[in-house]
From TrEMBL:
Described function: Involved in targeting and insertion of nascent membrane proteins into the cytoplasmic membrane. Binds to the hydrophobic signal sequence of the ribosome-nascent chain (RNC) as it emerges from the ribosomes. The SRP-RNC complex is then targeted to the cytoplasmic membrane where it interacts with the SRP receptor FtsY.
Protein name per the record: Signal recognition particle protein
Gene: ffh
Record field: catalytic activity: GTP + H2O = GDP + phosphate + H(+)
Top-tier EC class: hydrolase
Keyword Cytoplasm: yes
GO cellular component: signal recognition particle
Domain SRP54-type proteins GTP-binding: 271-284
Whole-protein residues included: 1 to 298 of 517
Species of origin: Microlunatus sagamiharensis
Length: 298
């Protein structure tokens, strides 16, 4: 991931090496190269414009004092601005004062929600929590079963509708799951919801109904990073239809360019909380904007 972007930025910075001061023309040329590099990485145009304008402005105003030479100074500015567009500080789940903390997953079908539910449950367990996974995706015939398999792998309990009792009503399942969590002292509830292949009104309404029924502490929008710019459009639709508190990027392992990762926090104004980079339950981590920026800058 970010291979081309990293290479291009490295080449840009290299061309500044050895200069003792940067002229306006140097800064403009550098800004242009950064712009092309970001656009090639499929970063959202508005994000690119803003990013480049800030780098240019800061580079022109930079005091050439201290230990950094001009090239190091530009790298530092780009690093800080990358951290900023990636969301700034690391932010993960905020646990409710009165358990259970309710986390709801929303996103398109195939985004990786069910897989993510297992990863998140495993992570929560590692943090000393006792999570309950809830199968409120009743659209796909196999979704309940898939969540049960994932739950088993993660070693956590799954609340699923019993045949003949509540099947077909994900809102009811979600509501009963919260009661179950209260009764059996699970301190975190992770609700997996249905997705469709495309954005549609029914899907949004169902997700909104589940949200209203369980009053989640965190709604996580799960999005496949491989869809690039479409991730931003999908995010906007979910922001409007359901609302969310944070983003989970999945399939970062397949996203060669990095456009979704570099656009989504800034465009949505919501933090990227977690990243998933493979099918295995272990291929998952808290998202750290500063580490991601360092990775891009090599
Ligand atoms: P859902 O429809 O949103 O519940 O999506 P699923 O969890 O069923 O995932 C859809 C497909 O993507 C499955 O084949 C998963 O194994 C795969 N998948 C999920 N997360 C990742 C990931 O981070 N990387 C890769 N390469 N595949 C993933």
């Amino acid at each position: 991931m970010f291979d081309t972007l990293s290479d291009r930025l490295a080449a840009t910075f290299k061309s500044l090496r050895g200069k003792t001061r940067l002229s306006e023309a140097d800064i403009d040329a550098t800004a242009r190269e950064i712009r092309v590099a970001l656009l090639e990485a499929d970063v959202n145009l508005a994000v690119v414009r803003d990013f480049v304008a800030r780098v240019r402005e800061r580079a022109k105003g930079a005091e050439l004092t201290g230990a950094l030479n001009p090239s190091q100074q530009i790298i530092k500015i780009v690093d800080e601005e990358l951290v900023a567009i990636l969301g700034g500080d690391t932010r993960t789940i905020r646990f409710a004062k009165n358990p259970p903390t309710v986390i709801m997953l929303a996103g398109l079908q195939g985004a990786g929600k069910t897989t993510l539910a297992g990863k998140l449950a495993r992570w929560l367990k590692g943090q000393g929590h006792s999570p309950l996974l809830v199968a409120a995706d009743l659209q796909r015939p196999n979704a309940v079963n898939q969540l049960q398999v994932v739950g088993q792998r993660a070693g956590v309990q799954v609340f699923a509708p019993e045949p003949g009792n509540g099947v077909g009503d994900p809102v009811d399942v979600a509501r009963r799951a919260i009661d179950e969590a209260n009764r059996r002292l699970f301190d975190v509830v992770v609700v997996d919801t249905a997705g469709r292949l495309g954005i549609d009104a029914d899907l949004m309404q169902q997700a909104a109904d589940i949200r209203d029924a369980v009053n989640p502490d965190e709604v996580l929008f799960v999005v496949d990073a491989m869809i690039g710019q479409d991730a931003v459009n999908t995010a906007n639709a979910f922001a409007e239809g359901v609302g969310f508190d944070g983003v989970v990027l999945t399939k970062l392992d397949g996203d060669a360019r990095g456009g979704a990762a570099l656009s989504i926090a800034r465009v949505t104004g919501k933090p990227i909380m977690f990243a998933s980079n493979g099918e295995a339950l272990t291929e998952f981590d808290v998202f750290h904007p500063d580490r991601m920026a360092s990775r891009i800058l090599g």
